[in-house]
Automatic annotation (TrEMBL):
Gene3D superfamilies: Cytochrome c-like domain (1.10.760.10). Residues 1-20 form the signal peptide. PROSITE patterns: CYTC. Residues 68-153 form the Cytochrome c domain. This is Cytochrome c. Keywords: Heme, Iron, Metal-binding, Signal. The keyword Iron applies. GO terms for molecular function: electron transfer activity; heme binding; metal ion binding. InterPro entries: Cyt_c-like_dom (IPR009056), Cyt_c-like_dom_sf (IPR036909). The keyword Hydrolase does not apply.
Length: 171
């Protein structure tokens, strides 16, 4: 009887998903606490930013889409992203075959509608179970991978009528 009561007490503490469901703001979302248009806290006067201005600018500005950029993106995607996301971006990489949770498919409506900066940010800072590749992938390569992800997405959605504007849609 005492064991059943202890078991019941222990199970009562296992209810809910409070730790799993943590509401948060996106980086560029308005924040009522700080009174700014950014979810991040305003930097104090005189703070020195991490990284160089050129590196920070490289994250903010996408490079022009070229054949070289796409080739770099394809190579880096195969090295860094494909183990989890799969070569076609379906979320069926080798780690999923080994029992890890599958990442989202790049072909889902949510990720097709996502801004290109979302992918650059996720590569640099991580998201959910994905850890940050910020120290492993420089900003220029993040944009190359993002361009390749957009090409993968277009490969399943594009028609012949879309071909002339495909280069613009990759951005």
């Amino acid at each position: 009887m005492r064991g059943a009561a202890l078991l019941l007490l222990a199970l009562a503490g296992c209810s809910g998903q409070e730790m799993a469901d943590q509401p948060s703001l996106k980086r560029d979302e308005a924040n009522a606490i700080w009174g700014t248009a950014s979810a991040t806290r305003p930097l104090p006067e005189g703070v020195v930013l991490r990284g160089t201005k050129a590196r920070l600018a490289a994250v903010a500005t996408p490079p022009p889409v070229t054949a070289e950029l796409m080739a770099l993106g394809q190579r880096r995607f195969a090295e860094i992203c494909a183990p989890c996301h799969g070569l076609a971006g379906d979320g069926d990489g080798i780690v999923v075959e080994r029992g890890f949770s599958p990442p989202p498919s790049y072909h889902s409506a949510r990720l097709r509608a996502a801004d290109a900066k979302h992918f650059v940010d996720v590569i640099g800072n991580g998201y959910g179970a994905m850890y940050s590749y910020g120290d492993r992938v420089p900003p220029e390569e993040r944009w190359a991978i993002t361009a390749y992800i957009r090409a993968l997405q277009l490969s399943r959605q594009a028609t012949l009528a879309d071909a002339p504007e495909a280069a613009e849609r990759i951005r």
